[in-house]
Amino acid sequence: MMTTRPDVNKVTYTVEAMQTRHELPAERQAMLDHAMKVLAKDPFHKTATASIGANDNYRKAYVAPGLMLEYTVVREILVVVLLEIFDESRYLLDLEVDEVP
Q: Hey, CA dihedral for 57, 82, 87, 20, is it positive or negative?
């Protein structure tokens, strides 16, 4: 039996996720806002998102360079629970490592 998934009519953020959003520079906020419009059209996209745990409604997505979020879909609302910012200018590969004798 196939279950129907709700259409998303609203995107909202938890207080913590909204605070993280406000800390972004204006251009990255615009990128995030655009990505959220795309995500709201298909929050269960098979290749662009992944479920977290057993509940298919709790998901994660890498929505823009250096931006990953976890969200849930409840009824017709997409709730951004966690927004993580990655500094893509620093990687472990760039760090100096002491050689082991």
A: positive
